[in-house]
């Protein structure tokens, strides 16, 4: 008996110590991607700690029939509290994963939503019903049995209907928070984040199964082996903590780093593109957005591109084979879509509505239709009639379920045709506010290159701080943006790049001394990084390169600041390793260096790492060498 008591004491001491260590561990994870739910997870673990404490009290401190009425009520309430906290955490991850929300606001938003959903009402209703029944009726009776340690203990023997209610709580927990974690996993494009979300959901479901099995079902069979259940639970909590720590904000920072084509529900957009533009990056973004949102996407392309379209989409992050096989992506050439027929608005309208009905029947959220006519003169014998009929179709077919993007090669159209399309609301596909057609090769043209020849180069820009070197930086960033590339900027908040482009479609790593770990910044596209931690800088660069989508342009401003912060030796090693990480042909990088801030030896050492070197001084941009 003494040995059993020692073993029992050792087990619970180890259990509570491990649980406390996990809570402290979660508290220390300031850079986790899931930090918005950290407090909710910790409170759930504390609820489980209360349940464990109740079992310790009734089994090993005060063994009496009287105490079991209180410990059971408190223990069941703690389990219900944990279930509610996990549900709020799942909702937070699905709706606003990286947004910082106060603890009380999380509770208020969840319990008193502006638009309550039926599943949420049912879930809260089940929890509230069981909670009231537990405290008002107490539907169990004490029973004396022997536990796993051979000691006599009192357990609650539940009424069958109350045990059924507890099983209903478990079913709701699996169906609602469990499915929410899986759904939140699907929304992530970064596989490690998606896997972490799903794994945490599976672990919490495992904890729920363990609690109902060892605290409910087995007790009804007169078996008190809750220690086995707690051992399973602590393993599950360890897995949750592992993924919480491994999945930093850097993991998911590139979830939306690729460009997104903002076309809303029910919109029908007509757009023009210049021949030199990378239209496939735009098309891939449109298709990718649809597939990730659960839409069916129909893409019709010029016959001349039939052999290359799948490869072009795959290079830009679209899993073409999988999407086509599942039916969520339908590819067809223009001749296959129109069959050589003249365009008739009545016929096309009926067929488009049939596509809508087919997509609805198959359960898709929307139907997205992308038609790239290219040179319309090669598609239809009478382009004028086609444009007239297209105008009629645009006024006839319009519903929130349908999203359409129709594009034309600007340089193959006559002036009258362009004006006719503009009358339909057509705009230049790449031209947002602040952009112009000249920006497509604004930076590369200064180097005597075309944009496609600039892609893949790693360039050192030595600048005179008294010059207008910001113009070169601006043209580099604008050219990348207008060619629909992912743009990642490493810069302090006071830099010209930050002040001019923080609201643009790009990702900012704000280098600062104010943080010691990656931290979400004030805007969605901003992360705070410690400027003196070269390992984290390299990790961020690695994430940028491995992001599964198209071409990437990187601006690092500047190597001079890095040298002054960490010293020449560390800055040199960082630059060398960074260039090794950026060897991919789809990555273009521009590193800034102020040579006047260093000894000539420092500049020579850093300069030797780059095959392509340019300068910007009083005479503007000058080429030293291009590799």
Topology of this structure?
Blueprint: H1 2-27, H2 38-61, H3 65-95, H4 103-111, H5 118-136, E1 140-146, E2 152-158, H6 160-186, H7 191-220, H8 226-246, H9 249-252, E3 268-273, H10 279-292, E4 296-301, H11 309-315, H12 320-326, E5 329-333, H13 334-338, H14 345-361, E6 367-374, H15 383-396, E7 402-409, H16 415-423, E8 427-428, H17 451-454, E9 458-463, H18 470-482, E10 486-491, H19 496-501, E11 507-512, E12 519-520, E13 526-530, H20 534-546, E14 552-556, H21 559-566, H22 568-581, E15 587-593, H23 600-607, E16 612-617, E17 620-625
Parallel strand pairs: 3-7, 3-8, 4-5, 4-6, 6-7, 9-15, 9-16, 10-11, 10-14, 11-13, 14-15
Antiparallel strand pairs: 1-2, 12-13, 16-17
Helix pairs in contact: 1-2, 1-8, 2-3, 3-5, 3-6, 3-7, 5-6, 6-7, 7-8, 14-15, 20-22, 21-22
**Percent of residues in beta strands?**
15-25%
Do you know the CATH architecture of the largest domain?
Answer: Up-down Bundle
- Poorly predicted runs are 96-103, 430-435
Strand segment count = 17
Mean pLDDT: 81
Anisotropy-based shape: flat
- Gyration radius (Cα, Å) is 31 Å
Structural class: alpha/beta
Q: Please list the strands of the largest sheet in the order they lie side by side.
A: 12-13-11-10-14-15-9-16-17
Our count of domains comes out at 3
N-end to C-end Cα span:
80 Å
CATH class of the largest domain: Mainly Alpha
Given the structure, what is the number of helices? 23
Quick one: biggest sheet?
A: 9 strands, mixed
Proportion in helices: 40-55%
* CATH fold description of the largest domain: Rhopdopsin 7-helix transmembrane proteins
